[in-house]
Amino acid sequence: MYLNCHSYFSLRYGAISPEKLLAISSEKGFETMALTDINNTSACLDFVRLSEKYKIKPVLGVDFRNGAKQQFVMLAKSNQGFHNINTYLSTFLHNTSFVIPDIAPVLGDTFVIYPYKHDGDFNLKKHEYLGVKPQDLNRLKFSKKNNSRNKLVILQAVSFENKKGFNTHRLLRAIANNCLLSKLPKNEEGQETDVMLSAKELFEIYHEFPELIENTKSILNKCSVNFEFSTGTPNNQKAYTKSEDLDYKLLKKLTYDGLSYRYQKPDAVVFNRINKELSIIKEKKFVSYFLMNWKILKYARSKNYYYVGRGSGANSIVAYLLRITDVDPVELDLYFERFINLYRKNPPDFDIDFSWTDRDDITQFIFKTFKNTALLAVYNTFKFKASVRELGKVFGLPKAEIDMLSKGRYNVKTLDKLSQLVIIYSEYIQGFPNYLGIHASGIIISEKPIHCYTATFFPPKGFATTHFDMVVAEDIGLYKFDILSQRGLGKIKDTVDIVKYNHPEKPPIDIHDIKGFKIDEKIKHILRHAQAIGCFYVESPAMRMLLKKLQVDNYLGLVAASSIIRPGVAKSGMMREYILRYRDPERCKKAHPVLLKIMPETYGVMVYQEDVIKVAHYFGGLTLAEADKLRRGMSGKFRSRDEFLSVKELFFNNCRQKGEPHDVVEEIWKQIESFAGYAFAKGHSASYAVESYQSLFLKAYFPLEYMVATINNFGGFYSTELYVHEARMHGGIIEAPCVNRSFNETIIMGKNIYLGFMFLHGLEVKTIKKLLLERTENGAFNCLDNFIQRMTISVEQTAILIKINAFRFTGINKRELLWEAHLKTSKTVVQEHVINLFETECVDYKTPELSSTTLEDAFDAMELLGFTLCNPFCLLEQTAVQPLRAAQLPKFKNRNISIEGYLVTTKNTITSSGKYMHFGTFLDYDGDFLDTVHFPPVASKYPFRGKGIYTITGKVIEEFDCITIEVITMEKLAIIQDPRYSDPSPKFVTNTKLSIS
Q1: For residues 704 and 710, what is the distance between their CA atoms, to the nearest angstrom?
Q2: What is the pLDDT of residue 529?
Q3: What parts of the chain have a pLDDT lower than 70?
Q4: Directed axis angle between helix 384-394 and helix 417-429, to 10°?
Q5: What pLDDT, on the 0 to 100 scale, is given for residue 986?
Q6: What are residue 682's phi and psi, to 5 degrees?
Q7: Strand-pair partners of 466
Q8: pLDDT attached to residue 453
């Protein structure tokens, strides 16, 4: 009986989940219900899927509104009608500003319900009706429309469940309108009566108008939509060629064609693996999926784009031969069934990483090549802290109080009424969808038009995007293509190009010679000593320490390390156990014999997702299908924990029947649970390791060029400053930007590295473009006058270049240059430079003799680059007093020491008791790393106080050849007063040489 129901996907309007809506309808005794979210179809497919559980016939539609003003409701008679509604809605959502018209168009297989208007003049078509709300009934009695009851239906809206729901609705509307709750206009909110009434209550209200009840029933009876869920049948584009038979022939041909590229002498193991995989791929109807990925990556190679195929797809030899991945699954004994197996109902996917500079072009290619394509949405939900801030503003709380509440620094019992309401409703709306975003990588390519399933919107990225997320897409058989971007690939590609121009005499780099990289002694040395700053996935402080502890110097060790570092393994304590067994093989005897037999390569420790599947199958007695359910539960792809808990119960029952000790089973299950949300497939780790080897090779042989590429790709784990420092440690001569030598990006000439203009805060893009164009067309600048004559830019922009010493080639003090620039550059709006036949003679103002110091240069660099180009220790107010250096720490094991360190980065974590502790990474005076541990009492008493140099006092601890300092006290040291704004002092000597080395 309800034609106008809203879930919370009526964004910032509805206050009830789709499932709750069905549950209430079932409780009230209804058998049919229409979901009509406002300008949105996100919940539609999930609503249909869940409706069977509640024995409700679902009807789908859209409530078309301008803001809160209802224009009309459209209902789909059939799937075709739903398709038509989605297409129509999408025409509006593809425009940033849209207005829904007063009159709906005629769309096939749809009903249209207009809200009743007492004075309106409607010429209704056959499929159109007027919706009468309870508050309209009295007026209807005295209206001429009362004589046309065959065109009237019930339009009781449902937007919330109860009084609290109405209050929530009003708060959401205030957030949407960015206004105080007290200032929310009445026409921007629904009626307090927009709740679901029982059939008895509804019929009582409309008892004088039985025709309306019958008309409403008739419409609902005529509507029917059907979708198939979780049948295992893909709904992606079915054929890459003209038919599925031709697809298979092509896939088989391409697979065997790829043998010569990958294997010199393929053996029976390879051929048997190919035959097995091709058979399963064909049976599961995934042939077109492989071919479409092949097509995308063939295009990428034609454009010389670097990419990495990773995820469980790396377990496939067919993917390896098609060059979708670069991991040999035979070499690593990768488990193909982890990727595709006959028991697995959900579709597989490849994760393809591209450089961040190339991904948009790849996406454009996919949209041009394949007909029914869309990006996947994500639901950006209200998080508690953000909700507190939003509701705090709505209630008009002062900023200080909002800050206090959002940080959790309060006792609920001592809060005033308004603050308590903020907390109550922030918890209530937590998890409500706030707005639709774009999935980080997901693209779907459908056999049918996308609008058969959903409306699409058009975000700034410029590609049509679904209303539903990846979980709903999987439910309906639309498995996604993951096209991701990362800066690591950009660094690799750019380094190869930089080496070409900086070392033209060297032969071209074969960056795909992974087999050669695996046995390279320089790379082994870097790995063993964890000298991998800038290298993909192996540069973080945690990874540096793990590499040292494991002394990794081979491919398999790196593959394992990249998975061991994940939180799941570390949290369970098995990372430490792995290290102990790695270093002492005798310790493996303590492992459970079944686990050691299943995982001899990782010493009986679960490291990969496949390990969990194997343990569940061989130790826990689960079938492969049940084990795969367990894997999906770990990866967070279940909608609820019910299915996961049933598998857990089965695991324990089977182990009990086998007679396994309960404490052993508990411990193994604890390890399995620790993988939740964190586990890597072994193929995924192997793919990461391939990219790591590429970056390690470049770091080993071309460290300066690699650091330049890292800087230009905006770093990795660390800030630009650390990569500049790393280049200096490898012999690079760091130069500030120069108007005659620098470009937008950082460049290298021999060992001289000129930082790019793009790193200068405040320097406008148009200034950079103009400077580079002028220099290209008319040559280098020979003095400041020449620059001012040729460049029509403001004095503020010129001043930035002077302050960073970009005119140092003139030999003139920059304070004098600043004086000249202010005298000779107009402060009015500048006009484009016109080239004259002769240069205008400049007026030569007499400027005072001024001086500047290298210390002033350091502060200018901090202001404009965000970091100084000199040794930061030279800026201390008092000269460094601690003679100790990081290299000397092994001599002081288990002793308390004091040392000075420049803060690089911190990592915060929470102990099992809920207290904060920290890990710190510092540089000593010589530029070497210091690693610190700050346990809760110290973390609380001696917090980090931002960027700078600290005196660290603590105990030197060695574990597995890895040195850390357990901090006892920590004090931030004062730096000198900024000499640009202070009186000159004898200690500031002109031309003092400052160096980090």
Answers
A1: 10
A2: 92
A3: 118-122, 230-232, 338, 341-348, 568, 570-571, 632-644, 676-679, 826-852, 982-997
A4: 140
A5: 43
A6: -60, -40
A7: 456
A8: 97
Residue 410 is predicted with a pLDDT of: 80
Q: Give the long-range contacts of residues 720-724, CB within 8 A, separation 24 or more.
A: 720/759, 720/865, 720/866, 720/867, 721/866, 721/867, 722/533, 722/904, 722/905, 723/533, 723/534, 724/753, 724/755, 724/867, 724/869
Pairing state between β 157-158 and 307-310: unpaired
Q: What's residue 398's pLDDT?
A: 92
Is 372:445 a contact under the CB 8 Å cutoff? Answer: yes
Which residue, 192, 190, 186, is CA-closest to 163?
Answer: 192
Which whole-number Å values give the CA distances from 664 to 312, 516, 655, 669, in the listed order?
29, 43, 10, 9
Residue 647, C-beta contacts closer than 8 angstroms, at least 6 positions apart? 622, 626, 629, 630, 633
Residue 294: how many other CB atoms lie within 10 Å: 22
Which tokens belong to 592?
A: 């459970």
Asked if 738 and 806 count as a contact pair (C-beta separation under 8 A), the reply is yes
What lies within 8 Å, CB to CB, of 648 at 6+ separation is 669
List the one residue out of 157, 155, 100, 156 whose CA is nearest residue 129: 155
434-438-443-449 Cα dihedral, nearest 10 degrees: 60
The pTM (predicted TM-score) of the whole model is 0.82
Check residue 996 and give its pLDDT: 35
Note whether 741 and 754 are within 8 A (CB): yes
Tokens representing 826 are 């107009």
Tell how strand 57-66 and strand 32-38 pair up.
parallel
Hey, what are 89's tokens?
């809605």
Nearest to 84 by CA among 102, 103, 62: 62
Query: Residue 437 and residue 184: Cα distance in Å, rounded?
Result: 27
For residues 436 and 551, what is the distance between their CA atoms, to the nearest angstrom? 46
Euclidean distance between CA atoms 943 and 970, whole angstroms: 8
Residue whose C-alpha is closest to residue 48's, from 643, 380, 472, 436: 472
- Residue 884: how many other CB atoms lie within 10 Å: 18
Residues 341, 292: contact at Cβ < 8 Å? no
Q: Cα(323)–Cα(302) distance, rounded to whole angstroms?
A: 13
Other C-beta atoms closer than 10 Å to the C-beta of 934 total 26
Q: What is the pLDDT of residue 215?
A: 96
pLDDT of residue 487: 86
Say how far apart CA 845 and CA 161 lie, in whole Å: 78
3-state secondary structure of 831: coil
| Matching residue, tokens 């050849």 | 961
Structure tokens that stand for 156 in this block: 């009781």
For position 792, what pLDDT does the model report? 87
